[in-house]
Specification:
303 residues, alpha/beta, Rossmann fold, 11 strands, 42% helix, elongated
Length: 303
């Protein structure tokens, strides 16, 4: 089981080198991350975009492009379609956003001819390594699905369980979070959390353990679970997956961790036929590299 990103990178280094297709690659932070990923044997890259601009940015980064395949395409959306088609056809193993707006990037992911759609809803997973926590935490959904329905939450769990298993967690523990750990009919998040727990017990959700509703402290802090007398729960401060009731809760926790905790994180879009790396322009260099490592581990598991 991977306890941190160093473990994930070691796991990647034991696999065949994966290849990422970058859409609209003329972006300095993305090229910097791609360069580091290649140097660390995480992934090679095919750079699709304006070749002149890619070469200009690479020169400013002291990045030797002689070992990279570059596909020259000036038009932004056409470049995205050419990049995603490389993944669709198996030439590349994962797909990464460069200097293109998120809406257009996602449109290419869902393209009927060359995209990566599977028929399942897409969801986003952020994987955290946090100082003081002896395991990786998988937060979902913090960036993509806004107000998930009960059915959506089932898909989010299924998508995230696949990521956990790729990272070596055989039976991940899923905590559907709420403000309280008891069912309150006036709080829909608690009702849906209990329903998800029941669905898991009935075998409608498989490959994991679901226990909800849970407050955040009971999900991640064994001492809190002990003090609250929750020892009889299936999850007693040892959750792997934190399932948020909506994007507001997820995004607030995500940003609180990024800006106040000593942490590392990586992000991936799930529900696709290959890993999709959808990082934000505000994400730092290491987050982009970690996301590539996460994508490589998932690509290996999906082979």
């Amino acid at each position: 089981m991977s306890k941190g990103f160093d473990d994930l990178i070691a796991k990647v280094n034991d696999c065949s080198l994966k290849k990422v297709a970058v859409a609209v690659a003329q972006d300095a932070p993305v090229l910097e991350a791609v360069k580091a990923a290649k140097e660390r044997n995480i992934a090679d890259a095919i750079l699709v975009g304006d070749a002149d601009k890619i070469k200009e940015i690479a020169a400013s980064l002291n990045m030797d492009l002689s070992g990279y395949e570059i596909i020259d395409e000036k038009d932004t959306y056409t470049a995205a379609l050419k990049a995603v088609e490389l993944v669709h056809n198996g030439t590349a193993d994962m797909y990464m956003k460069g200097l293109i707006d998120t809406k257009s990037f996602l449109k290419s992911v869902l393209d009927k001819e060359v995209g990566l759609r599977t028929g399942r809803p897409l969801s986003h997973v952020c994987v955290f390594e946090i100082e003081g926590v002896e395991k990786l935490l998988f937060l979902t959904d913090v960036a993509f699905m806004t107000y998930p329905t009960l059915e959506d939450k089932v898909h989010i769990i299924e998508n995230t369980v696949e990521i956990c298993k790729a990272c070596g967690i055989d039976t991940p523990k899923v905590a559907p979070l709420a403000a309280v750990e008891v069912v309150n009919p006036k709080m829909p998040a608690t009702v849906e959390a209990a329903e998800l727990t029941k669905m898991c017990e009935e075998g409608k959700i498989t490959g994991c353990i679901v226990d909800g509703p849970l407050s955040l402290d009971l999900a991640i802090d064994p001492e809190a679970a002990k003090h609250k007398g929750a020892e009889g729960r299936k999850i007693i401060g040892d959750a792997d997956i934190l399932l948020f009731p909506d994007i507001h809760a997820g995004n607030l926790v995500y940003k609180a961790l990024v800006h106040t905790a000593k942490e590392k994180n990586g992000n991936i879009l799930t529900g696709t036929k290959a890993p999709v790396i959808l990082t934000s322009r505000s994400d730092d260099f290491e987050t982009k590299v970690n996301s590539l490592a996460l994508g490589a581990v998932v690509a290996e598991a999906m082979k």
